[in-house]
From TrEMBL:
Ubl conjugation is among the record's keywords: no
Name used for this protein in its record: Glutaryl-CoA dehydrogenase
Flavoprotein recorded as keyword: yes
Start and end residues of each Acyl-CoA dehydrogenase/oxidase C-terminal domain: 245-384
PANTHER family named among the record's database cross-references: ACYL-COA DEHYDROGENASE, ACYL-COENZYME A OXIDASE
Record-annotated Acyl-CoA dehydrogenase/oxidase N-terminal domain positions: 19-128
PROSITE patterns, per the entry: ACYL_COA_DH_1 (PS00072)
Entry's EC annotation: 1.3.8.6
Domain of life of the source: Bacteria
Entry keyword set: FAD, Flavoprotein, Oxidoreductase
Amino acid sequence: MPEVLTGDIYRFEDMLSHHERDILLRVREFLRSQVVPIANEFWRREEFPVELVKGFADLGIAGLAYDEVPGLRPSSLLSGFLAMEMARADPSMATFFGVHTGLAMGSIAACGSTGQRERWLPPMSRMEQIGAFALTEPQGGSDVAGGLRTTARRVGDTWFLDGAKRWIGNATFADLVVVWARDVEDGHVKGFVVERGTPGFTATKIRNKMALRSVQNADIVLDGCRVPEDNRLQKARSFRDTAGILRRTRSGVAWQAVGVMLAAYEIALDYAKEREQFGGPIGRFQLVQDLLVRMLGNTTSCLGMVVRLAQLQDEGTYRDEHSALAKAYCTTRMREVVGWARELLAGNGIVLDYDIGRFVADAEALYSYEGTREINTLIVGRAITGLSAFV
C-alpha cells in the first residue's frame, strides 16, 4: 500500500474523487518504487533516467487534460496533486513532466489547429514523442515579452528561424520543440513546432548546474532553421497567447513547491525521530519541534492556497494574479522550509545520502523559473492597485 502524506495534516487529499485518488496513489507508488531510489544518483551524474519514460507512459497521465486524448478529463485539483507528488519524489522528474505535458503539450492544445492537435497530442500523451518549450533566451528572461530576439521570416510556405534560446528543458532529446519567435513582418510573437533533426537546429546540454541536475537543459541555436507553415501553431498570434500558456503552468510550479516542502518536512520529521543526541531522539527537544511546526505551517498554508487556485481554474474564474501570487508565495515559503530541514539535519543535511541536500539545491531553480518572485510580485501589484510598476 502506498505511503500516506504525513504532511497533509488538514487532509486536502480527501477532496479528490475516489477515481482521482486511485490515480494519485498509483502514481505515488510508481514514484516511491521507481524514482526515489535512483534520484540522487542520476542527479549526481547530471543524467536523465530515460528508462523511466516508459513507466511514466504506462501511468496514462500525460494526456489526461486534453480533449484529443480519450479518457476521463481530470480536475485541476488532480493535476495539481500529481505535480506536487512528482516534486515530492524528485523535482527534476516533476520539471521534465511539467515541460512535456504543461508547456509543450499545453502550447499545442491551446494554440494549435484541430489538425495539429490531432497530429501531435496523442503520441505525446503516450510519451512516444517528448516535447520541449523554447522561450527564454540568453539575453532575455524576465523581459522576454518585449525583448524576444529570435526571429521568424516567411518565404512561401517555409519559415526561417534565427536566434538562440537558453535553459530549455528536455531539449537535448526532445522529439518536438515549441519555439517562440518574432515575425519580422508584423512584429508579433508566433509559435513553431520544430521536429528532431530539422536542419539549422542545434541543442547543446548545459552542464555544471547546481539544481535540477537530472533535467537536460540546453542552449539552442537556430541558424536558418527551416520550419514548414504546417508546423506554425495556427492560433498563436501574439505574446498574449504565449502568456496564456505560462499562466496555466505557473500554478503547476506552485504545486511543485508544495511537493518540495512536503518532502523536506517528511525527511526532517523522520530524522528527528531517529537521530539521537543527549540520550534520546532530537525530536523531543523544543527547538527541533519548533522547526518542524514552522515547516508544517508553511506547507499547509501553501497547500490550501494551491487547492483554492485549482478550484478557481475549474470554475474558469482564475486570473494572472492568482497564479502569480501562488507561485511567488509558495516558492518563497519553500525556500524557508528546505532551509529549516537542512538546519535540522545539521552536517548530514549537506550530503546526498540524506536526500535533503538535493531538495535544497533544486528549490533554487523552482524559485526562479516560470517568473521570478519580483516579476510575479509586479503582476499581483498591478492587479491590486491598477497601476503598472513594470519599466
